[in-house]
Amino acid sequence: MTTGKFLSAAILCLVLGTALGDDVLEGNYNVTAFCTAVKTGTNLGSIVSCDYYYVCTSTGPVKTSCTSGYAFSLATGSCTPVGQANCYYGLENPCLGKTGQSWVPVTGTCNQYYYCLDGVNKGQGSCKGTQSFDKISQQCVYGNCNPALVDSSDEPSLQSVCEVVPAGKYFGDTINCQKWNYCQADGTLQTSDCTTAYDVQNNVCGFDTGNVCSRVTETELGTASLECTTKGAMKPNDNVCGSYYVCNGNSLVSYDCAYGYYFDDTKNDCLPRKTATPVTGCNRCQFATTTWVNAVNSTSCGTYYYCNNGKATLQTCQEDYYFNEAQQGCVPTANESAFNTYVSSNGACAGATVNSSPTEANGGSTTAEGGATTAEGGATPAPTTETPEPTTGTTKNPNA
Fold it and tell me: What's a Gene Ontology MF term here (predicted)?
C-alpha cells in the first residue's frame, strides 16, 4: 500500500538514522525523541506509512508491522481494518474502504483534502486562508494553517505532534521537563506545566530526581519545520551542538550527528566533539563525560558550563585565565604556549587569543570564582558547590 516516493523517503530516513546516530527519523519526525517523552509501551504512528507503527521500549522505538488489510489507528493505538483506521500516510488510494461521499486529508499538509466517492478518489481541494482541514469532522475549520510553511517535497513532514501520539495519552516534552501534553480525540493538543517536573512513566507531576528529566535533550519534538528556499543549505541547531538542519528546498529538516560528534559551524560537517567548532551558545554538555566543559568562546576561551543531567549552567573564569576541560579548571594564560596549544586542539576555543581581554599582573596564587586556591601556574578547579537541590512541591496527576 505504500507509494514509491514514501517508500524511498522511509529508506532514506532509516539510513540517515543509522549513519547519523541512534535516532530513528522520518523527515522532521524524530521517533526516538518522541519515545523518551511517552510512557514505555506506547505505540506511535508513522508519517511514512500506515502499514506499521513504533513501539516505544526502554531502549528506543521498535518498528512493528500490521497484518495485511490492517492499518495503524491513532484512535485505538493499534492496528484496525484499513477502512476504519482513518490513517492515510503512504496510501496509493487514500479513499480505500470509504463508502458514499467523504473527504480525507492530504498527508503532510494542514489545509488540503481529497474528495472520495464510494472508495474512489474524485479530486483534491484546499481550505481557504488559514483554515485547516479537520479529518474527524471532514470540514475546513478556523485555525492557524500557513500553507507557505508546508513541505511540498517528497520528504515526509509532521505538522502536529497529535498526528503520531494516540488520543487520550499524556506525554512529556524534550525541551521543558515541567511541561506535559495531551492529545484530544479531535487531534487538538492540550498543554500545561507541572510545578516541578512531569514524570512520564508514572504520569504525575513529581520531582526532578533520578532519570525523570533525562528526556530533556533540547531535541525538539518535530513539528512543521522552518521555511527555507536553498536546497542543500545547512544550518546549525542553536541549542543542540550535535544536531543541524538541511534545507530540502521548502523547509529545514532536522538531522543528528553520530554519537560523540558535533556539527561544526565553520565546516558544515559533523566532527568529533573535541575538535568541532559548533555554533556559539549550543549546549556542550551533550556527550560530555566530565562535570565542567568549555563553552564555545572564540575570544578568550574563558567561559565554561557546569553540567548536571545534560543541563548547562554558564560560568566564567577570572581575568587572564582560560578554561581547560582536560584539567577541569581555569588555567592562567601566562603560559602562552600552553594556551595556544589548547586553543588549536579544542574547537570550542578556536580563534581565541591571550590578548583578547585586559591583563593584570598576578603576583601569586589565585582563586577562580567559587573554586579553590592553587599555586601560580596550576589549574584552578571549577566550582564544586553549585549542585542544584531537588525542588519540593505538591505532587499532582494530570488526570485529576
Answer: chitin binding
Q: What domain range is 323 assigned to?
A: 292-381
**Those residues with Cβ within 8 angstroms of residue 68's Cβ, 6 or more apart along the chain or in another chain:** none
The pTM of the full predicted model, rounded to 2 decimals, is 0.49
What total of structural domains would you count in the chain? 2
Q: Is residue 134 part of a domain?
A: yes
User: In the predicted model, is pLDDT for residue 227 greater than 80?
Assistant: no
Q: Is the pLDDT of residue 344 over 70?
A: yes
Cα separations in angstroms, 114 against 30, 90, 186, 238: 27, 14, 19, 38
Q: Considering the domain boundaries, does residue 396 fall inside one? A: no
| Single-letter amino acid code for the residue at 275 | T
Contact 312, 284 (CB under 8 A): yes
Which 3 state secondary structure label does DSSP give 356?
helix
- Higher confidence at residue 341 or residue 246? 341
The chain-wide mean pLDDT, for the chain, equals: 77
Q: Grid coordinates in use for 177?
A: 521537563
Of 136, 161, 186, the one marking the end of a domain is 161
For residues 284 and 196, what is the distance between their CA atoms, to the nearest angstrom? Answer: 24
For residue 252, give the nearest of 271, 266, 265, 234 by alpha carbon.
234
Q: 274-277: long-range contacts (C-beta < 8 A, 24 or more apart)?
A: 274/345, 274/346, 274/347, 275/345, 275/346, 275/347, 276/241, 276/347, 277/347, 277/348, 277/350
Q: What's the average model confidence in pLDDT over 135-155?
A: 64
Q: What is the largest CA-CA distance in the chain?
A: 89
Kindly state whether residue 230 falls inside one of the protein's structural domains.
no
- 149, part of any domain: yes
CB 264 within 8 Å of CB 276: yes
The pLDDT of residue 271 is 95
List Cβ neighbours of 363 (8 Å cut-off, separation of 6 or more).
none
Distance, CA of 270 to CA of 212 (rounded, Å):
30
Q: Residue 182 CB: number of other CB atoms within 10 A?
A: 18
**Residue, of 316 and 207, whose pLDDT is higher:** 316
Which amino acid would we find at residue 266? T
> Does residue 91 contact residue 50 with C-beta atoms inside 8 Å?
yes
And the C-alpha cell for 166? 494516540
Among 154-158, 215-219, 324-328, the range scoring the smallest mean pLDDT is: 154-158
